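Worked example

This section walks through a single chain of length 196. The input is the sequence exactly as stored; nothing has been trimmed or padded.
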Amino acid sequence: MSLNWAMVDVPDRDRFYALSRGGSSNPVKFWFVGVVNKLWLFDSNGEPAKSISVNLGLLDNRDVALANNILRQHSKPHGAAEDYPDMRFSRWMTVRQQGESKPAPELFTDVYDARDGLRLPRLRMRQLPANQLTRGNLVLIDASVQRWHPRKEEGKTVWSEYKAYFALNYIALLNDSPPPNMPGQSLPQGDIEIEL
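Given that input, the structure is written out below as C-alpha coordinates.
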Protein backbone atom coordinates (compact mmCIF):
# COMPACT_ATOMS: atom_id res chain seq x y z
CA MET A 1 0.00 0.00 0.00
CA SER A 2 1.40 3.37 -1.01
CA LEU A 3 0.95 6.10 1.60
CA ASN A 4 1.33 9.78 0.78
CA TRP A 5 0.89 13.03 2.66
CA ALA A 6 -2.41 14.79 1.90
CA MET A 7 -3.72 18.10 3.19
CA VAL A 8 -6.84 17.75 5.34
CA ASP A 9 -9.14 20.69 5.97
CA VAL A 10 -11.47 20.37 8.96
CA PRO A 11 -13.91 23.23 9.70
CA ASP A 12 -12.98 25.38 12.75
CA ARG A 13 -9.48 23.85 12.92
CA ASP A 14 -6.16 24.48 11.24
CA ARG A 15 -5.32 22.51 8.11
CA PHE A 16 -2.94 19.62 8.59
CA TYR A 17 -1.15 16.91 6.64
CA ALA A 18 -2.02 13.26 7.24
CA LEU A 19 -0.93 9.98 5.65
CA SER A 20 -3.48 8.87 3.07
CA ARG A 21 -3.75 6.26 0.34
CA GLY A 22 -3.18 7.39 -3.23
CA GLY A 23 -4.75 10.77 -3.93
CA SER A 24 -7.37 10.54 -1.17
CA SER A 25 -7.66 13.23 1.48
CA ASN A 26 -9.06 10.69 3.97
CA PRO A 27 -6.39 9.83 6.55
CA VAL A 28 -5.42 6.16 6.92
CA LYS A 29 -6.52 4.75 10.28
CA PHE A 30 -4.23 2.74 12.55
CA TRP A 31 -5.47 0.70 15.51
CA PHE A 32 -3.33 -0.01 18.54
CA VAL A 33 -4.22 -2.12 21.58
CA GLY A 34 -2.34 -1.68 24.82
CA VAL A 35 -2.26 -0.67 28.46
CA VAL A 36 -2.49 3.03 29.35
CA ASN A 37 0.81 4.18 30.91
CA LYS A 38 0.24 7.95 30.99
CA LEU A 39 -2.77 10.23 30.49
CA TRP A 40 -2.91 13.97 29.89
CA LEU A 41 -6.54 14.77 29.04
CA PHE A 42 -7.00 17.89 31.20
CA ASP A 43 -4.79 20.77 32.27
CA SER A 44 -3.49 21.06 35.85
CA ASN A 45 -6.75 22.76 36.93
CA GLY A 46 -8.95 19.98 35.51
CA GLU A 47 -10.03 22.14 32.57
CA PRO A 48 -9.82 21.20 28.87
CA ALA A 49 -6.17 21.18 27.75
CA LYS A 50 -4.85 22.80 24.55
CA SER A 51 -3.35 19.45 23.61
CA ILE A 52 -3.94 16.01 25.05
CA SER A 53 -1.90 12.82 24.99
CA VAL A 54 -2.06 9.17 25.95
CA ASN A 55 0.99 6.90 26.25
CA LEU A 56 0.22 3.27 25.56
CA GLY A 57 2.29 0.20 26.38
CA LEU A 58 1.59 -1.97 23.34
CA LEU A 59 1.05 -5.67 24.01
CA ASP A 60 3.85 -6.95 21.78
CA ASN A 61 7.34 -5.51 21.20
CA ARG A 62 6.91 -6.19 17.47
CA ASP A 63 4.00 -3.72 17.46
CA VAL A 64 6.24 -1.12 19.11
CA ALA A 65 8.94 -1.68 16.47
CA LEU A 66 6.40 -1.43 13.64
CA ALA A 67 4.85 1.76 15.03
CA ASN A 68 8.27 3.40 15.48
CA ASN A 69 9.20 2.33 11.94
CA ILE A 70 6.07 4.00 10.51
CA LEU A 71 7.04 7.27 12.18
CA ARG A 72 10.68 7.05 11.02
CA GLN A 73 9.73 6.25 7.41
CA HIS A 74 7.35 9.20 7.16
CA SER A 75 9.52 11.84 8.82
CA LYS A 76 11.82 14.06 6.80
CA PRO A 77 14.68 13.54 6.86
CA HIS A 78 13.86 9.83 7.12
CA GLY A 79 14.67 8.43 10.53
CA ALA A 80 14.18 11.84 12.22
CA ALA A 81 11.56 10.41 14.59
CA GLU A 82 12.85 8.88 17.80
CA ASP A 83 12.17 5.32 19.02
CA TYR A 84 9.97 5.08 22.09
CA PRO A 85 9.33 2.09 24.39
CA ASP A 86 5.66 3.02 24.59
CA MET A 87 3.66 4.88 21.97
CA ARG A 88 2.37 8.41 22.41
CA PHE A 89 -0.88 9.53 20.82
CA SER A 90 -1.72 13.22 20.91
CA ARG A 91 -4.28 15.68 19.63
CA TRP A 92 -4.61 19.46 19.49
CA MET A 93 -7.88 20.43 21.16
CA THR A 94 -8.14 24.10 20.18
CA VAL A 95 -11.02 25.23 17.96
CA ARG A 96 -12.05 28.62 16.59
CA GLN A 97 -15.55 29.45 17.73
CA GLN A 98 -17.57 31.65 15.40
CA GLY A 99 -17.02 35.31 16.27
CA GLU A 100 -13.92 34.59 18.39
CA SER A 101 -10.48 35.74 17.24
CA LYS A 102 -8.53 33.33 19.41
CA PRO A 103 -8.90 29.53 19.43
CA ALA A 104 -9.94 27.92 22.71
CA PRO A 105 -9.54 24.33 23.95
CA GLU A 106 -12.53 22.01 23.87
CA LEU A 107 -13.21 18.97 26.05
CA PHE A 108 -12.05 15.58 24.72
CA THR A 109 -15.20 13.45 24.34
CA ASP A 110 -14.07 10.66 22.00
CA VAL A 111 -14.00 7.87 24.60
CA TYR A 112 -16.21 4.81 24.04
CA ASP A 113 -17.20 1.77 26.11
CA ALA A 114 -16.05 -1.45 24.38
CA ARG A 115 -15.99 -3.63 27.52
CA ASP A 116 -18.87 -5.68 26.08
CA GLY A 117 -17.45 -5.67 22.54
CA LEU A 118 -16.09 -3.26 19.98
CA ARG A 119 -18.87 -2.06 17.67
CA LEU A 120 -18.39 -0.16 14.45
CA PRO A 121 -19.10 2.52 13.61
CA ARG A 122 -18.00 3.75 17.00
CA LEU A 123 -21.22 5.68 17.60
CA ARG A 124 -22.86 2.29 18.26
CA MET A 125 -20.93 2.23 21.55
CA ARG A 126 -21.85 4.21 24.65
CA GLN A 127 -19.71 7.31 25.20
CA LEU A 128 -17.78 7.58 28.44
CA PRO A 129 -16.46 10.70 30.17
CA ALA A 130 -12.72 11.08 29.60
CA ASN A 131 -12.06 11.23 33.34
CA GLN A 132 -13.18 7.59 33.62
CA LEU A 133 -9.94 6.47 31.92
CA THR A 134 -7.07 5.60 34.23
CA ARG A 135 -3.57 4.21 34.03
CA GLY A 136 -3.65 0.45 33.60
CA ASN A 137 -6.80 0.37 31.44
CA LEU A 138 -6.67 -1.88 28.37
CA VAL A 139 -7.75 0.26 25.42
CA LEU A 140 -7.91 0.35 21.65
CA ILE A 141 -6.73 3.63 20.13
CA ASP A 142 -7.79 4.72 16.66
CA ALA A 143 -5.13 7.07 15.26
CA SER A 144 -3.90 8.65 12.07
CA VAL A 145 -0.35 9.76 11.24
CA GLN A 146 0.14 13.50 11.00
CA ARG A 147 3.25 15.67 10.95
CA TRP A 148 4.66 18.69 12.72
CA HIS A 149 7.58 20.99 11.93
CA PRO A 150 10.15 21.29 14.71
CA ARG A 151 11.76 24.66 15.35
CA LYS A 152 15.51 25.03 15.07
CA GLU A 153 17.68 26.51 17.81
CA GLU A 154 17.33 29.95 16.20
CA GLY A 155 13.56 29.68 16.68
CA LYS A 156 12.87 29.41 12.96
CA THR A 157 10.73 26.68 11.44
CA VAL A 158 12.21 24.74 8.53
CA TRP A 159 9.15 23.81 6.46
CA SER A 160 11.01 21.17 4.44
CA GLU A 161 11.62 19.09 7.61
CA TYR A 162 8.95 17.43 9.70
CA LYS A 163 8.37 14.66 12.22
CA ALA A 164 5.52 12.18 11.96
CA TYR A 165 3.40 11.43 15.02
CA PHE A 166 0.29 9.44 15.87
CA ALA A 167 -2.74 11.72 16.11
CA LEU A 168 -5.43 10.45 18.48
CA ASN A 169 -8.88 10.00 16.92
CA TYR A 170 -10.72 8.05 19.62
CA ILE A 171 -10.23 5.66 22.54
CA ALA A 172 -12.27 2.49 23.13
CA LEU A 173 -12.07 1.11 26.67
CA LEU A 174 -11.70 -2.69 26.39
CA ASN A 175 -11.05 -3.62 30.01
CA ASP A 176 -10.76 -1.58 33.20
CA SER A 177 -9.76 -4.37 35.60
CA PRO A 178 -6.32 -4.19 37.24
CA PRO A 179 -3.58 -4.48 34.59
CA PRO A 180 -1.31 -7.50 34.16
CA ASN A 181 2.23 -7.14 35.54
CA MET A 182 3.93 -6.98 32.13
CA PRO A 183 2.22 -6.11 28.84
CA GLY A 184 2.43 -9.08 26.50
CA GLN A 185 2.79 -11.71 29.25
CA SER A 186 -0.82 -12.10 30.29
CA LEU A 187 -4.03 -10.65 28.97
CA PRO A 188 -7.41 -10.20 30.66
CA GLN A 189 -9.44 -13.40 30.52
CA GLY A 190 -12.32 -13.70 28.09
CA ASP A 191 -12.80 -12.90 24.46
CA ILE A 192 -12.90 -9.44 23.00
CA GLU A 193 -15.71 -9.33 20.49
CA ILE A 194 -15.54 -7.10 17.41
CA GLU A 195 -18.84 -6.51 15.68
CA LEU A 196 -18.86 -4.88 12.23
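What to look for: Confidence is low (pLDDT under 50) at residues 182-187.
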